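[09:14] KT: can someone run the structure on this one? pasting the chain below
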Amino acid sequence: MGAVLSGCGSQDDAQDKSPKVNAAAKASAAAVTRANLIKTKTAAAAKVKANELGQIPVLMYHRIVDKPGNQDDRTPAQFRTELERLAAEDYVPVTAAEYVTGRMDIPAGKHPVVLTFDDSSPSQFALDGAGAPKANTAVAILQDVAQRHPGFRPVATFYVTRDMFGMTKPEEREQVLLWLAGKGYDIGNHTHDHLSLRGKPEKEVDAEVAKGHKLITSLINAVPVTIALPYGNQPNTKEWALKGSSGGVSYDYGGVFLAGYTPALSPFNKEFDPLGIPRIRSMDKKGDCARFCSVAWLDWLKANADERYTSDGDVKTVAYPKFKAPFMTMRFTDRALPY
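[09:31] RB: done, structure tokens below
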């Protein structure tokens, strides 16, 4: 009887150990798989010299017209030339919303560029009688360049005001915003009346931003993710433009864009400041723009490729050379892929 009991005990012990052994084996196999996957990803990132802590050009446009009336205007030909250059130099447009949230899903070896348009001018977007973008508007040109260059995404961010592309009827305003949103374009807040927020009390800042926010949300089912400040002027307390409420309308943005100057930092860089994201005015290298407008900065980024954001092709990881690790922000460490 003792022998029988002893035999039963040994069988039970084996059955008890078996699940533990299997679990350990599975865990070990999973760890090996993860290690191999990371090794493969880091090798791929190194091959394209990925640097997702690098700088990103956020380009600022206003009117696209045949006869420029001021330093912010660009002709259709100038706009097309700049887009063609971006495509040739492996830039891929992303929206301001994708940028500030870190969801820039572009191919390996490519560089993000954010195209932004202020003031919702009719020269930026209008529909013809067939429901297509009118010729020589910014959207029509962007769509055409994208068609000629597969992979060059036809997306941009439009910072709208009450002018709303020259549309006055609610139905017309809704129509243009629905068209843009439906095609993947991003709609951002530029305030309702395009008034400078500098020096205004918090109540007035909240009211103007909230009115601009409601202007969009009352027309389409899309909540703006970012705001571009009129004239680039920040309120006395920067946070007022990022988050607030007025008249029953609340806003809480992922980023506040200024009016110009330099390339912007990666959202994965610890020095990224969502309260004041710089943009670059589109212009040739002349006068004040010899150093600080789009042609000059694109030249600089091309010459200093190691400073430019280069994608590893995986939106779930943030790849960069190991020596840049001190610049990685804690917020995204779970996605870090140093190589």
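[09:33] KT: thanks! Residues 1-8 have pLDDT under 50 and may be disordered.
[09:34] RB: yep, looked fine to me
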